[in-house]
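Sequence design from tokenized structure. All designs in this work follow the same two-part layout: the structure record, then the generated sequence. An example of the structure record is given first.
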């Protein structure tokens, strides 16, 4: 399922409401997630919401509940590290005891994530926050939660199941718009001409699909830029480097790289340097995420622009769960507001990166 670009302005009340308000497989690092938390964008798509009364679920106060968080991927990726830490930090802020926040990590294995979610339910989770590995495939886990009348919030990646029926709501970025913003930055930093390679994210989820669509849709407005190659690096730094090394060999005249996350972009930097090229100068690089490593490279001149994808969902996720428990209507999608970094602000905003 693709995220449509928000088209209808929600009431100011919605935006304000969203922005105000056992053993573990993965242990806390003890580090703060830092930087600004994800907040709801002022413009939201319309659609029927979901209430406690509609679902028939029991009222569960967030501060007193057993809460399960299912992380999808290993936390070597800064996005995942910050995402999990944000959940932990907000739980601690709300006074939720450690033994009432159950955290699992699927290690990029869909079957394990299904088992993880079922395990969280068996261990008594009354509320679930899930970072899906893929857009498809989690239905057995969502069915298990529904059978136990446990509301599920999905974050970062959107599933193809039905909001309110199979899960409560999705909280995340407008990935199509991220792609469009990346294309506009690419046009700016290249002067509107060049040969572009795209390092695609992992297949099977809406993030890759939407970031690619947004980028290509917007790029048609800059006819001097041509996509000459695209290949998946699976959102991984080492794979991004390997793919970029191959693309340099097959397309030595590449002058720009659009990486669908920072980790692949940083891998591309390493590959370009290995080939004797100057990243950020000989080959322009634009990516999506907002990691400290990438933003620092912008400040140093070896990277050109990053569109933020804020992983700090903790406050908004817990606020949304509490609003649902209080009987308020929760929209099917909550689009967050994302920043961007370039040579004009990278040094000053480095502290906001993760």
């Amino acid at each position: 399922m693709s995220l449509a670009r928000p088209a209808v302005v929600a009431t100011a009340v919605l935006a304000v409401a969203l922005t105000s308000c056992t053993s573990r497989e993965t242990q806390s690092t003890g580090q703060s997630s830092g930087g600004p938390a994800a907040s709801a964008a002022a413009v939201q798509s319309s659609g029927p919401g979901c209430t406690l009364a509609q679902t028939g679920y029991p009222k569960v106060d967030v501060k007193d509940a057993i809460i399960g968080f299912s992380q999808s991927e290993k936390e070597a990726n800064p996005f995942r590290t910050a995402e999990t830490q944000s959940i932990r930090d907000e739980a601690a802020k709300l006074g939720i005891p450690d033994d009432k926040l159950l955290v699992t990590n699927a290690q990029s294995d869909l079957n394990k994530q299904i088992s993880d979610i079922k395990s969280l339910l068996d261990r008594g989770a009354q509320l679930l926050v899930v970072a899906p590995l893929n857009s498809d495939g989690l239905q057995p886990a969502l069915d298990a939660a529904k059978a136990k009348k446990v509301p599920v919030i999905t974050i970062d990646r959107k599933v193809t199941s039905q909001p309110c029926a199979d899960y409560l709501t999705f909280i995340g970025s407008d990935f199509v718009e991220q792609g469009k913003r990346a294309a506009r930055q690419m046009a700016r930093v290249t002067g509107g001409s060049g040969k572009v390679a795209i390092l695609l994210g992992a297949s099977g989820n809406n993030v890759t699909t939407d970031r690619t669509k947004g980028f290509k849709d917007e790029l048609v407005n800059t006819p001097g830029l041509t996509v000459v190659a695209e290949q998946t690096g699976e959102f991984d730094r080492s794979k991004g480097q390997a793919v970029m090394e191959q693309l340099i060999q097959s397309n030595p005249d590449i002058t720009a790289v659009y990486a669908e996350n920072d980790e692949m972009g940083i891998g591309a930097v390493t590959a370009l340097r290995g080939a004797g090229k100057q990243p950020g100068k000989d080959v322009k690089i634009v990516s999506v995420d907002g990691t400290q490593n990438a933003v620092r490279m912008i400040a140093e001149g070896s990277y050109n622009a990053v569109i933020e994808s804020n992983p700090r969902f903790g406050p908004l996720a817990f606020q949304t769960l509490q609003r649902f428990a209080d009987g308020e209507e929760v929209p099917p999608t909550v689009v967050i507001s994302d920043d961007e970094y370039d040579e004009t602000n990278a040094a000053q905003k480095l502290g906001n990166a993760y």
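The two ends are 28 Å apart (CA to CA). We note this feature because it recurs in several other targets discussed in the main text.
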